[in-house]
Protein backbone atom coordinates (compact mmCIF):
# COMPACT_ATOMS: atom_id res chain seq x y z
CA UNK A 1 0.00 0.00 0.00
CA UNK A 2 1.23 3.47 -0.85
CA UNK A 3 2.25 5.38 2.29
CA UNK A 4 0.31 8.41 1.13
CA UNK A 5 -3.01 6.59 0.51
CA UNK A 6 -5.83 8.28 2.42
CA UNK A 7 -6.81 5.57 4.88
CA UNK A 8 -7.08 5.39 8.63
CA UNK A 9 -3.70 4.61 10.16
CA UNK A 10 -2.67 3.66 13.66
CA UNK A 11 -1.72 6.40 16.10
CA UNK A 12 1.82 7.40 15.16
CA UNK A 13 3.07 7.71 18.72
CA UNK A 14 2.93 4.07 19.76
CA UNK A 15 5.78 3.85 22.25
CA UNK A 16 4.66 2.79 25.70
CA UNK A 17 7.92 4.01 27.17
CA UNK A 18 9.27 7.46 26.39
CA UNK A 19 12.68 6.34 27.68
CA UNK A 20 13.22 4.43 24.43
CA UNK A 21 14.72 6.01 21.31
CA UNK A 22 14.29 2.78 19.32
CA UNK A 23 11.96 -0.18 19.83
CA UNK A 24 12.13 -3.20 17.53
CA UNK A 25 9.56 -5.98 17.81
CA UNK A 26 9.60 -9.27 15.86
CA UNK A 27 11.60 -7.83 12.95
CA UNK A 28 12.00 -10.21 10.01
CA UNK A 29 13.77 -9.81 6.67
CA UNK A 30 14.55 -12.35 3.98
CA UNK A 31 16.12 -12.12 0.54
CA UNK A 32 14.59 -14.99 -1.39
CA UNK A 33 15.45 -18.17 0.50
CA UNK A 34 18.04 -16.37 2.63
CA UNK A 35 16.43 -15.55 5.99
CA UNK A 36 18.67 -12.84 7.46
CA UNK A 37 16.55 -11.46 10.32
CA UNK A 38 14.29 -14.18 11.69
CA UNK A 39 12.81 -12.59 14.83
CA UNK A 40 14.72 -9.62 16.23
CA UNK A 41 13.56 -7.84 19.37
CA UNK A 42 15.59 -5.06 20.97
CA UNK A 43 15.39 -1.57 22.41
CA UNK A 44 17.74 1.40 22.64
CA UNK A 45 17.22 3.81 25.50
CA UNK A 46 17.58 7.54 25.00
CA UNK A 47 21.21 8.50 25.56
CA UNK A 48 22.41 4.88 25.29
CA UNK A 49 25.16 3.40 23.13
CA UNK A 50 24.08 -0.08 22.04
CA UNK A 51 26.79 -2.20 20.38
CA UNK A 52 25.72 -5.03 18.06
CA UNK A 53 28.11 -7.97 17.65
CA UNK A 54 27.86 -10.94 15.33
CA UNK A 55 29.69 -12.79 12.60
CA UNK A 56 29.65 -11.45 9.04
CA UNK A 57 26.30 -12.13 7.40
CA UNK A 58 24.38 -12.28 10.68
CA UNK A 59 22.16 -9.34 9.70
CA UNK A 60 23.72 -6.46 11.63
CA UNK A 61 23.90 -4.03 8.72
CA UNK A 62 20.49 -5.14 7.42
CA UNK A 63 19.08 -4.21 10.83
CA UNK A 64 20.17 -0.58 10.69
CA UNK A 65 19.15 -0.25 7.03
CA UNK A 66 15.66 -1.43 8.00
CA UNK A 67 15.58 1.22 10.72
CA UNK A 68 15.89 4.06 8.22
CA UNK A 69 13.83 2.19 5.61
CA UNK A 70 16.70 1.83 3.14
CA UNK A 71 15.46 -1.76 3.20
CA UNK A 72 11.78 -2.59 3.74
CA UNK A 73 11.33 -5.23 6.45
CA UNK A 74 9.04 -8.20 5.75
CA UNK A 75 7.44 -8.20 9.19
CA UNK A 76 7.76 -6.51 12.54
CA UNK A 77 7.30 -3.19 14.23
CA UNK A 78 9.84 -0.36 14.29
CA UNK A 79 9.20 2.54 16.64
CA UNK A 80 11.72 5.38 16.37
CA UNK A 81 11.49 8.38 18.69
CA UNK A 82 7.91 7.34 19.39
CA UNK A 83 6.93 7.02 15.71
CA UNK A 84 5.79 3.72 14.19
CA UNK A 85 7.58 3.97 10.83
CA UNK A 86 4.99 1.74 9.11
CA UNK A 87 2.23 4.22 9.99
CA UNK A 88 3.70 7.47 8.68
CA UNK A 89 3.76 9.11 5.26
CA UNK A 90 6.84 9.53 3.08
CA UNK A 91 7.06 13.20 4.08
CA UNK A 92 6.90 12.31 7.78
CA UNK A 93 9.49 9.59 7.25
CA UNK A 94 11.85 12.10 5.63
CA UNK A 95 11.44 14.44 8.62
CA UNK A 96 12.20 11.54 10.96
CA UNK A 97 15.29 10.57 8.95
CA UNK A 98 16.74 14.04 9.58
CA UNK A 99 16.85 13.13 13.27
CA UNK A 100 18.97 10.05 12.47
CA UNK A 101 22.65 10.25 11.55
CA UNK A 102 24.30 7.41 9.62
CA UNK A 103 28.07 6.91 9.62
CA UNK A 104 28.99 4.46 6.87
CA UNK A 105 32.07 2.23 6.85
CA UNK A 106 33.63 4.27 4.04
CA UNK A 107 32.54 7.63 5.54
CA UNK A 108 30.76 8.17 2.15
CA UNK A 109 32.50 11.46 1.38
CA UNK A 110 32.30 13.41 -1.87
CA UNK A 111 35.87 13.28 -3.16
CA UNK A 112 35.33 16.20 -5.55
CA UNK A 113 34.33 18.51 -2.68
CA UNK A 114 36.48 20.17 -0.05
CA UNK A 115 35.99 19.40 3.62
CA UNK A 116 33.94 22.60 3.93
CA UNK A 117 31.74 21.66 0.95
CA UNK A 118 31.20 18.13 2.29
CA UNK A 119 29.83 19.62 5.50
CA UNK A 120 27.74 22.25 3.73
CA UNK A 121 26.05 19.60 1.58
CA UNK A 122 23.63 18.28 4.26
CA UNK A 123 22.60 21.89 4.95
CA UNK A 124 21.48 22.60 1.39
CA UNK A 125 17.77 22.17 2.23
CA UNK A 126 17.91 24.26 5.41
CA UNK A 127 16.27 27.35 3.89
CA UNK A 128 15.93 29.16 7.21
CA UNK A 129 19.68 29.17 7.83
CA UNK A 130 21.69 32.18 6.75
CA UNK A 131 25.14 31.82 5.18
CA UNK A 132 26.65 32.80 8.52
CA UNK A 133 24.54 30.20 10.35
CA UNK A 134 25.82 27.51 8.00
CA UNK A 135 29.39 28.68 8.42
CA UNK A 136 29.03 28.51 12.19
CA UNK A 137 27.62 24.97 12.01
CA UNK A 138 30.50 23.85 9.78
CA UNK A 139 33.09 25.33 12.13
CA UNK A 140 31.38 23.84 15.19
CA UNK A 141 31.19 20.36 13.62
CA UNK A 142 34.86 20.43 12.58
CA UNK A 143 35.94 21.63 16.01
CA UNK A 144 34.00 18.81 17.67
CA UNK A 145 36.04 16.20 15.77
CA UNK A 146 39.37 18.04 15.86
CA UNK A 147 39.53 18.95 12.18
CA UNK A 148 39.29 22.74 12.23
CA UNK A 149 42.57 23.16 10.33
CA UNK A 150 41.47 20.81 7.53
CA UNK A 151 38.51 22.92 6.37
CA UNK A 152 39.91 23.69 2.90
CA UNK A 153 41.54 20.31 2.24
CA UNK A 154 40.24 17.66 -0.15
CA UNK A 155 39.25 14.22 1.22
CA UNK A 156 42.17 12.64 -0.69
CA UNK A 157 44.55 14.72 1.46
CA UNK A 158 43.18 13.21 4.68
CA UNK A 159 44.30 10.07 6.49
CA UNK A 160 41.85 7.22 7.10
CA UNK A 161 41.22 8.40 10.64
CA UNK A 162 40.65 11.99 9.49
CA UNK A 163 38.16 10.78 6.87
CA UNK A 164 36.23 8.94 9.60
CA UNK A 165 36.25 12.11 11.68
CA UNK A 166 34.98 14.12 8.72
CA UNK A 167 32.21 11.57 8.13
CA UNK A 168 31.21 11.92 11.77
CA UNK A 169 31.32 15.72 11.56
CA UNK A 170 28.97 15.62 8.57
CA UNK A 171 26.66 13.31 10.52
CA UNK A 172 26.67 15.67 13.52
CA UNK A 173 26.00 18.86 11.59
CA UNK A 174 22.23 18.28 11.55
CA UNK A 175 22.33 17.50 15.29
CA UNK A 176 20.71 14.05 15.10
CA UNK A 177 19.07 12.43 18.10
CA UNK A 178 20.11 8.95 16.95
CA UNK A 179 23.36 7.91 15.26
CA UNK A 180 23.86 4.59 13.46
CA UNK A 181 27.52 3.58 13.18
CA UNK A 182 28.40 0.85 10.67
CA UNK A 183 31.88 -0.49 11.49
CA UNK A 184 33.27 2.94 12.49
CA UNK A 185 36.84 1.70 13.10
CA UNK A 186 37.24 -0.71 10.18
CA UNK A 187 40.53 -0.26 8.30
CA UNK A 188 42.15 1.89 10.97
CA UNK A 189 45.30 1.15 12.95
CA UNK A 190 44.72 0.31 16.64
CA UNK A 191 45.73 3.76 17.93
CA UNK A 192 43.48 5.64 15.49
CA UNK A 193 40.65 3.15 16.09
CA UNK A 194 40.88 3.85 19.81
CA UNK A 195 40.76 7.60 19.15
CA UNK A 196 37.60 7.20 17.02
CA UNK A 197 36.01 5.04 19.74
CA UNK A 198 36.73 7.71 22.35
CA UNK A 199 35.27 10.34 20.00
CA UNK A 200 32.04 8.31 19.72
CA UNK A 201 31.86 8.33 23.51
CA UNK A 202 32.47 12.09 23.62
CA UNK A 203 29.69 12.67 21.07
CA UNK A 204 27.30 10.62 23.20
CA UNK A 205 28.10 12.55 26.36
CA UNK A 206 28.10 16.00 24.76
CA UNK A 207 25.02 15.64 22.54
CA UNK A 208 23.03 13.06 24.57
CA UNK A 209 22.67 10.96 21.42
CA UNK A 210 21.33 7.42 21.26
CA UNK A 211 23.45 5.13 19.08
CA UNK A 212 23.58 1.69 17.53
CA UNK A 213 27.17 0.70 16.82
CA UNK A 214 27.86 -2.23 14.49
CA UNK A 215 31.42 -3.43 15.04
CA UNK A 216 33.84 -6.35 15.03
CA UNK A 217 36.35 -4.26 17.00
CA UNK A 218 36.20 -5.43 20.61
CA UNK A 219 38.23 -2.43 21.81
CA UNK A 220 35.57 -0.18 20.24
CA UNK A 221 32.85 -2.23 21.94
CA UNK A 222 34.57 -2.02 25.31
CA UNK A 223 35.06 1.75 25.10
CA UNK A 224 31.69 2.78 23.66
CA UNK A 225 29.06 0.30 24.84
CA UNK A 226 26.57 0.87 27.61
CA UNK A 227 25.04 -2.42 26.52
CA UNK A 228 25.83 -5.11 23.94
CA UNK A 229 23.60 -7.49 21.98
CA UNK A 230 24.91 -10.50 20.08
CA UNK A 231 23.36 -11.68 16.80
CA UNK A 232 23.38 -15.32 15.69
CA UNK A 233 21.38 -16.95 12.89
CA UNK A 234 18.91 -14.08 12.64
CA UNK A 235 18.20 -13.69 16.36
CA UNK A 236 19.51 -11.68 19.30
CA UNK A 237 20.91 -14.51 21.42
CA UNK A 238 22.53 -12.54 24.25
CA UNK A 239 22.62 -9.08 25.76
CA UNK A 240 24.37 -7.42 28.65
CA UNK A 241 27.31 -5.24 29.54
CA UNK A 242 30.79 -5.94 28.20
CA UNK A 243 31.83 -7.58 31.48
CA UNK A 244 28.67 -9.67 31.71
CA UNK A 245 29.04 -11.09 28.20
CA UNK A 246 32.79 -11.58 28.59
CA UNK A 247 31.91 -13.97 31.42
CA UNK A 248 28.77 -15.50 29.85
CA UNK A 249 27.99 -19.18 30.30
CA UNK A 250 27.67 -19.65 26.52
CA UNK A 251 31.17 -20.37 25.12
CA UNK A 252 30.12 -19.06 21.69
CA UNK A 253 29.25 -15.67 23.18
CA UNK A 254 32.46 -15.63 25.22
CA UNK A 255 34.49 -16.32 22.06
CA UNK A 256 33.93 -12.73 20.88
CA UNK A 257 35.77 -11.43 23.95
CA UNK A 258 38.79 -13.74 23.88
Report on the structure:
- With 258 residues, the chain is of the alpha/beta class.
- It has a domain at 111-175.
- Helix content is 32%, strand content 24%.
- The protein has helices at 60-67, 90-97, 115-120, 131-144, 160-172, 190-207, 218-224, 242-246, 251-254, and strands at 20-31, 34-45, 49-53, 75-80, 83-84, 100-103, 178-182, 210-214, 227-232, 235-240.
- The strands form two sheets. Strands 6-7-8-3-9-10 form a six-stranded mixed beta sheet, sandwiched between helices. A four-stranded antiparallel beta sheet has the order 2-1-4-5, covered by helices on one side.
- Strand 4 and strand 5 form a beta hairpin.
- The longest helix is centred in the C-terminal third of the chain and has 18 residues, at 190-207.
- The protein starts with 19 loop residues before the first strand and ends with a helix.
- Residues 1-16 have low confidence and may be disordered.
Amino acid sequence: MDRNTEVAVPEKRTSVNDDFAVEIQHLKKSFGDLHVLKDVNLTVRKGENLVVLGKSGSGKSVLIKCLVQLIEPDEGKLVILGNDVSAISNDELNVLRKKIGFLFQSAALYDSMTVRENLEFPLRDQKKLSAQDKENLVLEALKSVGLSKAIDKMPAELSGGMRKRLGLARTLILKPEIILYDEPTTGLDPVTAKDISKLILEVQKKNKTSSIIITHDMQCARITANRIVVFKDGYCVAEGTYNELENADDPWVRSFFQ
